[in-house]
UniProtKB/TrEMBL annotation:
Keywords per UniProt: Kelch repeat, Repeat
Record's GO cellular component terms: nucleus
Pfam family, one: Kelch_1
Species this chain originates from: Salvia divinorum
UniProt xrefs under PANTHER family: F-BOX_KELCH-REPEAT PROTEIN SKIP11 (PTHR46122:SF2), GALACTOSE OXIDASE/KELCH REPEAT PROTEIN-RELATED (PTHR46122)
Keyword set includes Repeat: yes
Record bears the keyword Repeat: yes
Protein name stated in the entry: F-box/kelch-repeat protein SKIP11-like
Length: 451
């Protein structure tokens, strides 16, 4: 790979076209070409690299080709062949190798139609082919076209170390490491919330004197700081839908519980204040369901009691409606050896195919919300090894058409993070272990990015 390439790829791979494990990828090397001279150093991520390629015969060596049976394999190999032909013809004519076309044989529109259906794990290879491919990805145009055509690929982003984030591709079952965050000590040890929206991962925390937001961009593969909400907060409920996200409730710097809500648009980078909820609440959860935003459960009221209700926000009418008994969290007295319910994690809820599910960590049960009768129904069990500390450290997320439970067993010596998946449309709950990795910590933060 190229240094500072603005795409997620494993750090373990060399720059040659080799295969480690079962992940094929393509560098700038062509099978019968050698890079003789770098005309411009690869130091600036915003600079387009100029690479002069001199084609000459070299001894044949084994090269891993991308699988031509897959969409990306056919596209990349076709583009490589086209690029090699262009390099030869321009070199022969004495021209600079300034390739700007996509796949000439099928035209730009069909090229883009194919590209938006490719896995974004392959976009690093695609960006290395020529300037047009590179521009499509670096400007974010390709992701906007994917969204317009309702094409989304969902990856899980999680942090099990204070400043380190990883992305997990559930389809290919591969991990990718993000650049390390570089905040101050106050942010490191403060409570954090996370939210993925559009092509951004937002991490909310606290600086010495204020709340602060760090933003990871999938387009640039970098972290930035400085985004400001209209009413900064923590311990809020949130959810995203495409390029927008809604954050509701939470606490301000003084610890006051809020009723206010805001909408964030990742395309414009703007925050819009929404009408306030009917009840103040913190430690709540948020989801989008049937095109509406719901905030569920939490702690509120003058006596900081556990709230059983939820609230529905209609984006068209800009109004809130209270929904009784929507929270799946128990509200009775604490059972033996358990803390009060107000000490537990916010409700572990997720939506798949417009159906709301909840994870009950105490009874290890999976529940579904009956929207017609407004009651919770037990539908099965959670994975057996999904350990947590009163719900903390266990991630329960929707990831496209599947539910994900991310957590794992641990003891005094070691621990593991296990990624379990169930697709509700395939039948009763039956969890499949996608991957397992060693980790000494719980899952601190987790978000799912679909783009």
């Amino acid at each position: 790979m190229l240094e500072d390439r603005a795409c997620l790829v494993s750090r373990d791979y060399s720059r040659s076209c080799v295969q480690k494990g079962s992940w094929p990828y393509v560098s700038l090397g062509l099978e019968n070409a050698e890079i003789q001279q770098m005309k411009r150093p690869l130091e600036d991520i915003n600079r387009v690299e100029e690479i002069e390629i001199c084609v000459r015969k070299v001894p044949k060596r084994p090269v891993v080709q991308m699988d031509t049976a897959s969409p990306i394999g056919g596209i990349v190999n076709a583009a490589l062949a086209q690029s090699a032909t262009q390099f030869r013809s321009r070199r022969h004519a004495g021209e600079n190798s300034n390739t700007t076309s996509l796949i000439g044989a099928i035209g730009r529109d069909l090229s883009i139609s194919c590209l938006i259906k490719c896995s974004r794990a392959d976009y690093g290879a695609i960006a290395s082919l020529n300037r047009s491919f590179q521009s499509l990805i670096r400007t974010g145009e390709l992701y906007r076209l994917r969204r317009q055509n309702k094409v989304a690929e969902h990856w899980v982003y999680l942090s099990c170390q204070l400043l380190e984030w990883e992305a997990f591709d559930p389809s290919r079952r591969r991990w990718m490491r993000l650049p390390r965050m570089d905040p101050n000590d106050c942010f490191v040890f403060a409570d954090k919330e996370s939210l993925a929206v559009g092509t951004e991962l937002l991490v909310f925390g606290r600086d010495l004197m204020s709340h602060v937001i760090y933003c990871y961009s999938l387009i640039t593969n970098t972290w930035t700081k400085g985004m400001k909400m209209n009413a900064p907060r923590c311990l809020f409920g949130s959810a995203s839908l495409g390029e927008i996200a809604i954050l509701a409730g939470g606490c301000d710097l003084n610890g006051s519980i809020l009723r206010s809500a805001e909408l964030y648009n990742s395309e414009s980078g703007t925050w819009t204040t929404l009408p306030s909820m009917k009840k103040s609440r913190k430690m709540c959860s948020g989801v989008f369901l049937d095109g509406k935003f719901y905030v569920v459960g939490g702690i509120g009221g003058a006596d900081n009691r556990l709230l059983k209700c939820g609230e529905e926000y209609n984006l068209d009418t800009r109004t809130w409606t209270e929904i009784p008994n929507m929270s799946p969290v128990r509200t009775g007295a604490a059972r033996d050896n358990e803390p009060p319910a107000t000490s537990e994690a916010p409700p572990l809820i997720a939506v798949v195919n417009n159906q709301l599910y909840a994870a009950d960590y105490a009874d290890m049960e999976l529940r579904r919300y009956d929207k017609d009768n407004r009651v919770w129904v037990t539908v099965g069990r959670l994975p057996e090894r999904a350990d947590s500390m009163y719900g903390w450290g266990l991630a329960f997320r929707a990831c496209g058409d599947r539910l994900m439970v991310i957590g794992g067993p641990r003891n005094a010596c070691e621990g593991f993070i296990e990624v379990n998946s169930w697709v509700p449309s395939e039948g009763p709950p039956q969890w499949h272990l996608l991957d397992r990795k060693r980790s000494g910590n719980f899952v601190y933060n987790c978000a799912v990015m679909g783009c």
